[in-house]
């Protein structure tokens, strides 16, 4: 369902591509924060 509506049949939408990149960046930042949090907890 999602693939069909998000461009499996249509050419890639630049807006969707931008959103995908944004989500990927947020995941990286989130993982970095988790890692930092873990490091801080080990120091306490």
TrEMBL record:
Domain of life per record: Eukaryota
Alphabetically ordered keywords of this record: Coiled coil
Annotated coiled-coil segments of the chain: 16-43
Protein name, per record: c-Myc-binding protein
């Amino acid at each position: 369902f999602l693939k069909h509506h998000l461009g499996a049949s249509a050419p890639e939408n630049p807006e969707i591509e931008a959103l995908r990149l944004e989500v990927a960046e947020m995941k990286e930042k989130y993982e970095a924060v988790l890692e930092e949090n873990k490091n801080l907890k080990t120091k306490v």
